[in-house]
Amino acid sequence: MMTRPLLIAVMPVRVRQHVNPLSRRFQVPLRVPDWSRVYGRPGQRFHLDVGCGKGRFLLEMAAAHPEWNFLGIEIRLPLVEQARRWAGDEGLTNVCFLAGHAGVGLGELLAALPEPGLYRVSIQFPDPWFKRKQQKRRVVQTELVSILAAHLQPGGQVFLQSDVQEVAVEMAARFQADSHYTCLGQGIENPMGIPTERERSTLSRGLPVYRSLWARPLD
After folding, report:
1. How far, in Å, CA of 75 to CA of 101, rounded?
2. pLDDT by residue for the chain (219 residues), tens digit each?
3. Among 41, 108, 112, 176, whose Cα sits 20 to 30 Å from the Cα of 201?
4. Which residues are catalytic?
5. Domain total in the chain
6. Would 39 be classed as within a structural domain?
7. Reduced to 3 states, what is the DSSP secondary structure of residue 145?
8. Which residues contact 141 (CB under 8 A, 6 or more apart)?
9. pTM for the full model?
């Protein structure tokens, strides 16, 4: 389902395009919030967006799907603060943004989710870190894939996309290597129905987007 983008006032926020997630200052575990304070209805299915950036995708998803709770994790604090302001301006009570490194404390955060728990994950256009010595900074590592498998509910899905083929292939390979996942499709259309800013920009220039969809099979 396609929806019209929210009319969000753009305020200038100076943020570094890339930060080193392995830096010591990003090794603080993600904080587990009081879910009853951040969500109007905490007992709904959760969608986690890893590396949510400015949060526009989740804000549109939250507005379009009030029956879901949305949780965004972003390493750059200024972007999280801006996304929170936008969510408040829009009166959205089914979306929350956390600042931190998704590879630090994610398991504890997901274990603390209210029931029914995590049913969907999206990882979209993560930093490619092209230099070989920097590729350990890429967000989709074996440990992250395992953590998501441990907390994704049966039937839950993971959606991956990138405009860098090398990154898309590597992400898909890591999920393929984990026996907890089944591939539902590669080279697919966006099943979310709402594109990210990067996705819109890439497609408008006639460039490809590489996607794959994974699921944890029903027990």
Report:
1. 5
2. 445 455 454 444 455 556 765 456 655 779 999 999 999 999 999 999 999 999 999 999 999 999 999 999 998 899 999 999 999 999 999 999 999 988 888 999 999 999 999 999 999 999 874 467 656 768 899 999 999 999 999 999 999 999 999 999 999 999 999 999 999 999 999 999 999 999 999 999 999 999 999 999 987
3. 176
4. 127
5. 1
6. yes
7. helix
8. 103, 174
9. 0.89
